[in-house]
Design brief:
47% helix, 15 strands, alpha+beta, 6-stranded antiparallel beta sheet, disordered C terminus, Helix Hairpins, 13 helices, single chain, 7-stranded mixed beta sheet, binds adenosine-5'-diphosphate, Beta-Lactamase, 463 residues
Length: 463
């Protein structure tokens, strides 16, 4: 810190003193004043000089004291209201006098998060006009009048429901004898949402597993009972039991698969995988079933393939789930069109492909970073009503009317597709309408041009 400013006052003081003495000397030399007057004048100049020097010294000391206090304050935290105001959690300081008088409970400080939460304009006011929840008010009373820590759950009114935990803590007495307490809110909305999803998921998964299990137990009983001696019934029941056991196996496979994908969802894959080759593999695998049902699989793949940064098994799973669904919901003799396009921009990858029906983006990449390779699977099946589209990727969701019968599924396929696309930083869209068929498009960031050329994938047309 510079101390030069006040010290600079000494220079002019000495200069003025020297000038005064010089004038006295000149006047004495010129006999304009006598010796006694000269001594008196010199003494006066010396006196004035000493006074001026003392004043300058005081100014220096005061300035130094000011600088040292300022330096100390620079390391001090800002005042408490400023600090509390900056906290992201809502905080209120509450004062009260009479336990029986509700109007004596006032908040005497509310930080800006508390003002936003409780929609109050001022940092001061009647507590019951800011918070009406009886549980929170009770917790505050515990802190104010019984010196107890207390907490309560607070749900905000309105459409955008938030669930918060309110913590009340006693702060003792103010100087004027009022009781004080602090009330801090912590937002637990996300925690409750995750918890609800977990509980729903467990309930759904157990329900889905219990249904085939109950059917299996029922048939075992029948086979031991009246069907024991009936070879025809036995054969039929064993067939049903096999289907149910198969359904349970598929469910468990899908559940495990979903949990594995979710576990690694934050780790982007790094292999270079040809999406067109993955399509060829799946088409080869489902061709016999398609053939059996007279469904034509029409594939259109880029000749040079479509290299994406991906996990090969997971990409095959995406193709498999979308093609399985298209086949499952196609009428016998229908056509399923499977296409891969490469070198698309984010807009191109997400662009509509089916002229009729509604379109919905089920997943959009956070940071669109093209070019993308897109897989499109289109069928001529019953289609899906517009209002059902947003729920398609929910676990266990199945469009009503398609739940039972030969089109048995786990209701997890599209959830798996969405999580895989998300892990790949890709996107997913559906276009459909009742009676208009369905088109799913999944797209993935392409791998940068490789030193090694991609293996060419042939254009195939299978039936
Ligand atoms: P599932 O194993 O039941 O097929 P998915 O998660 O793959 O489960 O699909 C969820 C639901 O979406 C299906 O049950 C079905 O109602 C509907 N759906 C999916 N794909 C199609 C499609 N291509 N055509 C008509 N409905 C479909």
């Amino acid at each position: 810190m510079s101390l030069r400013a006040p010290r600079a006052g000494r220079g002019p003081t000495f200069a003025a003193a020297a000038a005064g003495l010089a004038v006295v000397a000149v006047l004495a030399a010129a006999d304009r004043i006598d010796a006694a007057e000269a001594i008196l004048a010199a003494a006066f100049v010396a006196f004035v000089t000493v006074i001026a020097l003392m004043t300058a010294q005081r100014a220096v000391e005061r300035h130094e004291a000011f600088l040292s206090v300022t330096a100390e304050r620079a390391n001090e935290p800002p005042p408490y209201p400023t600090l509390i105001n900056a906290l992201p959690d809502p905080v209120l300081v509450i004062s009260a006098t009479e336990p029986d008088d509700l109007t004596s409970r006032r908040y005497i400080f509310a930080n800006s998060a508390a003002r936003d939460l409780l929609r109050i304009e001022l940092g001061e006011g009647l507590l019951v006009s800011a918070i009406r929840d009886p549980h929170v008010l009770h917790a505050v009373d515990e802190a104010l009048f019984h010196g107890q820590d207390a907490e309560a759950v607070y749900e905000t009114p309105g459409v955008q429901e938030r669930i918060l935990r309110a913590y009340a803590r006693p702060l003792g007495l103010a100087l004027d004898g009022r009781r004080l307490a602090i009330l801090v809110f912590r937002d637990e909305t996300e925690f409750h949402r995750v918890e609800r999803t977990r509980v729903d998921f467990l309930a759904n998964a157990s329900h889905e597993l219990r249904t085939p299990l109950a059917s299996l137990s029922g048939f075992i009983e029948t086979l031991r009972g009246h069907a024991k001696e009936d070879p025809g019934a036995r054969e039929r029941f064993l067939g049903i039991m096999q289907t149910q056991a198969e359904r349970m196996r598929r469910l468990i496979d899908d559940l495990l698969s979903l949990s594995r994908i979710e576990l690694n969802e934050h780790i982007a894959p790094s292999e270079r995988v040809d999406l067109a080759a993955a399509v060829m593999d799946v088409v080869d695998a489902v061709a016999p079933l398609a053939h059996e049902r007279g469904v034509t699989l029409d594939t259109k793949l880029p000749l040079r393939g479509a290299l994406v940064i991906g996990d090969r098994d997971q990409l095959v799973q995406v193709v498999q789930n979308l093609v399985d669904n298209a086949l499952k919901y196609s009428a016998d003799g229908g056509v399923v069109r499977i296409a891969v396009e490469a070198g698309l921009s984010a807009e191109g990858a997400a662009a509509p492909r089916q002229p009729e029906g509604a379109r919905l983006a089920l997943l959009t990449p956070d940071l669109p970073q093209g070019p993308y390779a897109a897989l499109t699977v289109r069928d001529e099946g019953p289609g899906i009503a517009r209002e059902k589209l947003p729920r398609l990727t929910e676990r266990f969701y199945r469009v009503e009317g398609q739940k039972s019968g030969e089109r048995s599924g786990t209701g997890l396929g599209l959830a798996i597709v969405k999580h895989i696309a998300n892990r790949h930083r890709g996107g997913l869209a559906v276009e459909s309408g009742e009676g208009r068929g369905t088109t799913f498009t999944a797209y993935f960031p392409q791998a940068p041009a490789a030193a090694k050329a991609a293996p060419p994938a042939a254009v195939a047309k299978l039936s």
